[in-house]
């Protein structure tokens, strides 16, 4: 695997046959999550396909020329031409493999597959998800001398890792950068002795057998499971959204706001996330138009005061997006006035969407008792409806979802488990 700069792009990519190119950034959790996958696949495919990395922030002109608008972004080339599907954001290992395999013959793929050896590892407790709830549970369990593994499809930290500032976490006088708070939590748990399996694809979860398959070849077994899979951003579901994800539409201000210096941005939403992230984006963008379906924001008053006092930010209340398009180098957002039904067009350089979250339970939602919104029901000890299966953090049914409540959930589950196992 080789790192290049823009001046080497032609020789190292366009004139090098079969190549996969990773545009990455600093302070970018999805980039960090991709790195170990990219490196491991380079070990498998490196004899047939060239693996190249390029630092997007120091090679911005090339990124703009290639219309790379999100970090990370993987591009696949064959004989100087881009082929396959561009991958960006939270990139799955399986999706990378699908693109890599299109560049190879069946015989080459067979040789690579034969290099992969299935493995089985056993632990006392398996924690699915390494956000604040999962990290806290891991900390308490390792301190209780219980053999524990943390599993996450990204790097530790959950949604906190992509939050620019946290001002209400006890013990810190000054607001903390989200990624640093996550990093400190993670390092504390890791140093205690909890095993980590992060930046992996979880291809199967069997809550009855207490087994999980990672990256299609590694089986993890445990006596008990803690589900701490958290939530992920809701999609609006209008034309153009999926097609333009990572190509002008972003769900992570921490990852991508820095690329909109002196540019115009549209922010969709009006809750805490939308308002707080708009305030952060305003540190870079020259103009922000917020689009919110209600006649007032639903965020906390302190965050609203910052928005209303910022001359860069204006709001279209009682409007909803109806489509997203790319016209040249501009994003075009069509919005509907919910009062008059008039369709308006907003032109900008990029769009950020923050319209709430949904629980990450796709792999096991039919196996547990859920509330009417799809969140996992638990008892006071964080036990679910299945024996030896616990759940903590934002994924469970509860009134408030905060870092502090997730930490409390993780504490309770770990203590309950420790008492049972000891």
Write the SSE topology.
Elements: E1 2-4, H1 9-14, E2 18-24, H2 29-45, E3 50-55, H3 60-65, E4 73-78, E5 81-88, H4 93-101, H5 106-115, E6 119-128, H6 132-143, E7 148-152, H7 178-192, E8 195-198, E9 202-206, E10 211-214, E11 218-227, E12 231-233, E13 249-250, H8 253-256, E14 264-268, H9 272-281, E15 287-292, H10 301-308, E16 313-317, E17 319-327, E18 330-337, E19 343-348, E20 350-353, E21 357-359, E22 389-391, H11 403-421
Parallel strand pairs: 1-3, 2-3, 6-7, 6-11, 7-8, 11-22, 13-20, 14-15, 14-20, 15-16
Antiparallel strand pairs: 2-4, 4-5, 9-10, 10-11, 12-21, 17-18, 18-19
3D architecture notes:
The protein is of the alpha/beta class and 422 residues long. The chain folds into 3 domains: 2-115, Glutaredoxin (3-Layer(aba) Sandwich); 119-232 and 357-421, FAD/NAD(P)-binding domain (3-Layer(bba) Sandwich); 249-353, FAD/NAD(P)-binding domain (3-Layer(bba) Sandwich). Helices cover 27% and strands 29% of the residues. It has helices at 9-14, 29-45, 60-65, 93-101, 106-115, 132-143, 178-192, 253-256, 272-281, 301-308, 403-421, and strands at 2-4, 18-24, 50-55, 73-78, 81-88, 119-128, 148-152, 195-198, 202-206, 211-214, 218-227, 231-233, 249-250, 264-268, 287-292, 313-317, 319-327, 330-337, 343-348, 350-353, 357-359, 389-391. Strands 6, 7, 8, 9, 10, 11 and 22 form a 7-stranded mixed β-sheet that branches. α2 (29-45) crosses α4 (93-101) and α9 runs parallel beside α10 (301-308). The longest helix has 19 residues, at 403-421. The termini are far apart.
């Amino acid at each position: 695997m080789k790192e290049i700069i823009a001046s080497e792009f032609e020789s190292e990519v366009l004139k090098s046959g079969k190549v996969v190119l990773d545009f990455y950034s600093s302070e970018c959790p999805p980039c960090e999550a991709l790195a170990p996958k990219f490196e491991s696949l380079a070990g498998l495919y490196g004899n047939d396909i060239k693996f190249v990395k390029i630092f997007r922030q120091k090679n911005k002109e090339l990124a703009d020329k290639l219309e790379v608008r999100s970090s990370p972004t993987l591009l696949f080339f064959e004989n100087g031409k881009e082929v396959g599907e561009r991958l960006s954001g939270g990139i799955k290992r399986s999706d990378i493999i699908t693109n890599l395999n299109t560049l190879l013959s069946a015989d080459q793929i067979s040789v690579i597959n034969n290099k992969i050896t299935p493995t089985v590892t056993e632990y006392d407790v398996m924690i699915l998800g390494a956000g604040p709830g999962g990290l806290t549970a891991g900390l308490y369990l390792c301190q209780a001398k219980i053999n524990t593994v943390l599993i996450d499809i990204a790097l530790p930290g959950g949604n906190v890792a992509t939050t620019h500032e946290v001002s209400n976490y006890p013990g810190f006088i000054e607001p903390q950068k989200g990624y640093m708070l996550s990093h400190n939590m993670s390092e504390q748990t890791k140093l205690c002795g909890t095993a980590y399996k992060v930046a992996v694809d979880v291809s199967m979860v069997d809550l009855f057998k207490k087994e999980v398959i990672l990256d299609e070849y590694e089986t993890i077994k445990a006596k008990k499971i803690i589900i701490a899979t958290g939530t992920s951003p809701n999609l609006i579901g209008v034309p153009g959204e999926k097609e333009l994800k990572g190509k002008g539409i972003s769900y992570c201000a921490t990852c991508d706001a820095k690329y909109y210096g002196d540019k115009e941005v549209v922010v969709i939403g009006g809750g805490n996330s939308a308002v707080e992230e708009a305030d952060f984006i305003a540190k870079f963008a020259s103009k922000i138009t917020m689009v919110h379906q209600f006649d007032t924001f639903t965020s906390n008053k302190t965050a609203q005061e910052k928005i209303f006092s910022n001359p860069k930010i204006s709001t279209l209340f009682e409007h909803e997006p109806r489509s997203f398009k790319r016209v040249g180098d501009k994003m075009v957002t069509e919005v509907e006035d919910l009062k008059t039904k008039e369709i308006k067009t907003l032109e900008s350089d990029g769009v950020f969407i923050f319209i709430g979250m949904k629980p990450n339970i796709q792999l096991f939602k039919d196996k547990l008792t859920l509330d009417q919104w799809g969140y996992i029901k638990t008892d006071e000890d964080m036990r679910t409806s299945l024996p030896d299966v616990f759940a903590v953090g934002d994924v469970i049914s509860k009134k408030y979802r905060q870092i502090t409540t997730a930490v409390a959930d993780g504490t309770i589950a770990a203590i309950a488990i420790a008492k049972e196992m000891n």
